[in-house]
Specification:
Layout lengths: L1 E5 L4 H12 L3 E6 L14 E4 L5 H8 L6 E4 L6 H6 L1 H22 L4 E6 L22 H20 L3 E6 L1 E3 L17 H9 L6 E4 L11 E2 L1 E3 H18 L3 E5 L5 E2 H12 L5 E4 L14 H7 L8 H16 L3
Helix pairs in contact: 1-7, 2-4, 4-5, 6-8, 6-10, 8-10
Bound molecules: uridine-5'-diphosphate-4-deoxy-4-fluoro-alpha-D-galactose.
Length: 327
């Protein structure tokens, strides 16, 4: 089986490429290396340097490539930035996806597994959030993901292109075997920021609010290990091929972790001080976001294996310790 992983040199994409390789697939990674990293390319995968904004480059990799499907993870993903630069997010996320879908349709590539986000839901109306929860994105990033899901629905109907829309909650952690070597640059998410603080790159961490109605006052999120996410992509691909049916699934663990719990566990596991200070709330942060993942469990038989707090923290620390504490 042959699979094209678009955005496969990125943080999640590289774990997805690894998961398909581990299952014996022939993998081609297509990436412009804007945020993707060369260190994330595996020797047993083919690499094509290209950009989703260039339809002719997509055409050249897709036509005659004999792909049994593709995974699309090439996107801008900073929710805060998307509110300041909507033009860039429309271009990369929406127009870039249209290029991919049009070229995939022309080359007869199906299914397309799409990296979507819990950001499509907006603030929770109820918890845990299932796939039928109202979709009211509160940032432009979430809007782009929702629009792409709608496009996928139409291509399914009009072009018989099957899709898997995978809505990630908070992706975290690194390959426990250390095979993904690139560290994300300028991370904006909690766990890498905690690790940069543990490693002394940052002098302190800001905890965005301790006055939320949660067990310790800090926000609760549903962190899911990136290798568990990756495994779900393989399972979604196989499910869609077998059933000739598109699917939309949440990926989360249903277990919320607070910011303070994450920081305390990081202190215990790294043995470092991790100085932290409570700051004001960050705009747009809901108190709690937790997924219902029963659909992924039922349809895909997906059970998270690495998403416990200790594995999340220790697999990430292994990366930061290795890169930042060289003698
Ligand atoms: N946080 C801090 N300090 C920091 C960074 C984060 O306290 O320096 C807190 C945030 O307030 C939040 C939690 O840590 O409560 C997690 O924040 P992240 O920025 O890591 O993640 P978000 O939950 O805001 O968003 C993530 C992805 C989005 C995605 C969303 C879906 O970054 O792309 O999950 O649930 F849409």
């Amino acid at each position: 089986m042959r699979i094209l992983v678009i955005g496969g040199a990125g943080y999640i994409g590289s774990h997805v490429a690894r998961a398909f390789l581990d299952r014996g697939y022939e993998v081609t990674v297509f990436d412009n290396l804007q945020t993707g990293l060369r260190e994330n390319l595996f020797e047993d995968a083919r690499f094509v340097h290209g950009d989703i904004m260039r339809p002719e480059q997509l055409r050249s990799v897709m036509q005659g490539g004999g792909y049994d499907g593709c995974v699309h993870l090439a996107a801008l993903k900073a929710a805060g930035q998307s509110m300041l630069k909507p033009e860039a997010y429309s271009e990369s996320n929406i127009a870039g996806t249209i290029n991919i879908l049009n070229q995939a349709a022309a080359a007869g590539i199906s299914p397309v597994i799409f990296s979507s986000s819990a950001a499509v839901y907006g603030s929770p109306r109820y918890l845990p959030m299932d796939e039928d929860h109202p979709k009211e994105p509160e940032n432009f990033y979430g809007f782009t993901k929702l629009e792409i899901e709608r496009l996928l629905g139409w291509y399914d109907r009009l072009k018989e292109m099957r899709y898997g829309a995978i809505r990630y909650f908070n992706a975290a952690g690194y390959d426990v075997l250390g095979r993904v070597r690139g560290l994300e640059l300028n991370p904006e998410n909690l766990l890498p920021i905690v690790m940069e603080t543990a490693a002394g790159i940052r002098s302190k961490l800001l905890i965005f609010g301790d006055d939320y109605p949660t067990r310790d006052g800090s926000c609760i999120r549903d962190y899911v290990h990136v290798s568990d996410l990756a495994e779900a992509h393989v399972r979604a691909f196989e499910y869609i091929r077998q059933h000739d049916k598109s699917i939309t699934v949440n990926l989360g663990t249903e277990n919320g972790i607070t910011v303070i719990e994450m920081v305390e566990r990081a202190r215990a596991i790294t043995g470092m001080a991790v100085p932290a200070e409570i700051s004001g709330r960050r705009e747009g942060d809901p108190a709690e976001l937790v997924a219902s993942s029963s659909r992924a469990r039922e349809l895909l038989g997906w059970v998270p294996k690495y998403s416990d707090i200790d594995t999340l923290v220790s697999s990430t620390w292994k990366m930061y310790e290795k890169y930042l504490h060289k003698p």
